[in-house]
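Hi W.,

Here's what went into the run:
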Amino acid sequence: MSEAHDHEHGHDHEPGRTHDAPLSEVELRVKALESLLVEKGLVSTDAVDAIIELYERDVGPKNGARVVARAWTDPAYRERLLADGTRAIAELGFGGAEADNLVAVANTAAVHNVVVCTLCSCYPWPVLGLPPTWYKSLPYRARMVAEPRAVLREFGLELPDEVQVRVWDSSAEVRYLVVPMRPAGTDGLTEDALAALVTRDCMIGTAVPLPPRPAA
Amino acid sequence: MSAADGAPGLADLDAALAGDAPLPRDNGELVFEEPWQGRALGMGVVALARTGASWAEFRRHLVAAIRRRPHDPGESAATAYYAAWLDALEALLAERGLHAPRRRS
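Here's what came out:
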């Protein structure tokens, strides 16, 4: 895994940005093609921008949330998920190289799980999408192992003393998905409504799902 | 409301391009080394949706373009991939009479 991720570049998609250097041949080619497509009414610059933004946000966390919601509503699925994460997410149509060995770890009243990658930023993106910036930061990676409770508190997650915190170190070989506890007061909810409660951070373990807010 | 409504998700794209022509990634993240690469991707997705061309059709062009492109050791994987992507997009549009490629001498 590469250690130094440079995330400064590559995120500047403004078509009208000013270039310090003259446009390269390939940049001119892209510009010409885009102008042609706009002229033919096949493409709008806004639509292209929207696609890039969509893919950068990815759809990953929704995949993971569906997995968790299924586990909450279907005890047999939950068992299969905890026994073999990769096979269980494949049942829902998810998978890929970065989830070839996916281990699902379930939170209980006694144990809270949280995931880190101390070496770099290994992450089960087929279920969670692109990792958040903090996941890749050195302080998170170092401190989550040394003082998980303090780091979780900074995320706004205060765990009772009797709850044991288990930190899972992701690697290129094994990646983890936290299955949070189903919040109280969600008995009547559909699987879709439950999935909406499961955020990315819940599945990394730096947050827990909250019950739905009562309609105002 | 969003212009991205109805666009294929990244997972659909991955499925369509798996095997011979996967999108360049680094630890799961799409790699765009320069903005033009993201624009090339975005244009392809939008243009395909508007022309009604299938991803299978685009994939055929893309795989052919990747094979055709001479390997330049000084070129990064993402640069090579998105250059081939442009070849494929132009070829697909040309096939539909929407793009007349100017021949370079």
